[in-house]
Amino acid sequence: KVKDEATGIEIVLPGACSQKDFNSARKYKAKDSDVFVCSYPKTGTTWLLTITWLIVHHGEEIPKNYTDSIPTLEFDGCENIEAIDDGEFPRIIKTHFPYKLVPKNLKAKYLYITRNPKDAFVSYYFHVRGFNSVYHWKNPDLSNLYELYIKGEVTSGLFFDHLKNWYAHRNDPNVLFLLYEDVKQDPRNEVLKIAKFLGDEYEKKLKMDDGKILEIILERSSFSHMKGMSAWHTTYRPENEPFIRKGVIGDWKNHLSTEQADGLDRALMEHGKESGISKLWDK
Ligand code: A3P
């Protein structure tokens, strides 16, 4: 758990992030050209990062170690991020920070992705199991982890608070609010939407040559292509617990009890009353 002195916010971050890293991350001043990829864990962050990277790099082949070159605000901290020289490209920065803690700049861009909490929880369960060497919970039981998840006693705090606070800014001109389910159901439309948000020049590039770059981006960000890449945390994860795991909508049905599914639905309804987040997965 780390504490932010300025806001009083306390937050649980993965063990690899110390209070020192956190303090350093809070010092980072966003540049006009920065692109932040923001999310609560397990909602499609890596997918959105990949799409964003591909758009910014005009569909170029994804380098094997490219996730290493994309800093995570809370792990890498201010000095390391400032030291990155991306040349002509905007800096892409990943973060699971809640809205309040993300460095603000009216010209920088903030992409936020979210996902049905039932699938996000199941994905988190497999994530923690796969990162046994990093998390302090060793091989957690799904029902024990559920009890912590529903109370927000997990990495990045309560799913619903994170979502609510970002959702309140969904119409800010420099925020693009995305649903994992929309990207899954209509990736073409969502990739074009992201490109347009990043800048007309990116959208134009995607459409050139009868949309050749768009096709390349769709292929290189597809589940099968990403699963086949070896760049995903292989040092930590055993082969039978891949980071790019299943990538579907509704996997919760295979893992959650009726009570657990209802509990997450109820929590969404309660938190959605005023904020409107309960309607996000109505369609
Ligand atoms: P599952 O565990 O349900 O498979 P994050 O990057 O925020 O940790 O999210 C990880 C989740 O996104 C995992 O979900 C992973 O499989 C899924 N994912 C990653 N790339 C994907 C892609 N190209 N298409 C669909 N899902 C993807």
TrEMBL record:
Domain of life: Eukaryota
Single GO BP term: sulfation
Domain Sulfotransferase: 32-273
Alphabetic keyword roster: Transferase
Enzyme class: transferase
SUPFAM superfamilies: P-loop containing nucleoside triphosphate hydrolases
Gene Ontology terms for molecular function: sulfotransferase activity
EC assignment: 2.8.2.-
InterPro entries hit by this protein: P-loop_NTPase (IPR027417), Sulfotransferase_dom (IPR000863)
A GO term from the CC aspect: cytoplasm
Family: Belongs to the sulfotransferase 1 family.
Protein name: Sulfotransferase
Originating organism: Ciona intestinalis
